[in-house]
Design brief:
mainly alpha, 12 helices, about 80% helix
Length: about 260
């Protein structure tokens, strides 16, 4: 098998992993990303190898293994670092994505300050990738909201929503809707929050995103709790947990909670 064949196979396998991840098939996504990394290594393509490692790290984080998550993304950053100095937008973008993934891992570990700094750094490399920019804005919203600055969080989330809508990223748009709902729950407008989370729930169900669906259900549970409707709060929260367990995810950080 020629080197180009290994590279093409790696890219195709990684894309298949991306689909599995979006459908919340985490174990299968991890297998595909590992296979993609091995194929890229055989071809000597450090860009593809780094991208596959970076994605595998995110899956490990969802599965609750933050040690492996950090190890995988750190290896990806080592491979991709040389790409930041050249003129290739693909290389810079891959490094930025890996840096954002490391920030996500640190967020899941509760290292908010470090995570926020890494997201800000990642944004410098993602100027041409609106989907990745939206992710950065969402997490910056998570962090500022968790630290008590709800208005700043709202601004970050609205920027994320704008980026997602611009490229018709339904999953990203749905996540932004849930987070805006969280803002309105926090600021005493639970009915508006419920409407936004229900809108997001329909989006996630239409695209088969079970993790996103659980995220929206959790947001609904919080909104109903703020409305003092404890029955619906419990129903939605329990449904979120059951759905999340069905995906194999163990790390469900309460990113929809502003404290």
């Amino acid at each position: 098998t020629s080197i180009p064949d290994f590279s093409n196979a790696s890219l195709a396998t990684r894309k298949a992993g991306d689909v599995c991840f979006r459908l919340s098939e985490l174990t299968e996504a991890l297998r595909r990303f590992k296979d993609a990394e091995a194929l890229a290594a055989k071809s000597g393509n450090s860009l593809l190898q780094g991208e596959a490692l970076s994605r595998a790290g995110v899956v490990y984080s969802y599965l609750g293994d933050n040690y492996q998550a950090q190890s995988q993304v750190a290896s990806a950053l080592d491979l991709l670092k040389s790409a930041t100095g050249d003129s290739s937008p693909l290389g810079r973008n891959a490094y930025g994505e890996a840096l954002a993934n490391m920030a996500e891992v640190n967020y899941s570990k509760g290292h908010f300050a470090k995570s926020f700094e890494q997201f800000r750094e990642a944004r410098k490399y993602l100027e041409k990738d609106r989907k990745a920019q939206a992710k950065v804005y969402r997490f910056e919203g998570y962090i500022t909201g968790s630290l008590g600055d709800a208005n700043r969080a709202k601004s970050e989330i609205e920027q994320a929503q704008e980026q997602s809508y611009a490229i018709n990223d339904k999953a990203g748009g749905g996540l932004a809707l849930v987070l805006l709902g969280t803002f309105y729950s926090f600021t005493g407008k639970p009915l508006l929050a419920i409407d936004l989370c229900k809108e997001a729930l329909e989006i996630f169900r239409s695209i088969g995103d079970r993790h996103g669906e659980a995220f929206a259900l959790n947001g609904l549970g919080q909104a109903y709790q703020k409305k003092s409707d404890l029955t619906n709060a419990l129903i939605n929260t329990e449904n979120a947990l059951r759905l999340l367990e069905s995906t194999g995810a163990l790390d469900f950080v309460a990113v929809t909670t502003f404290k």
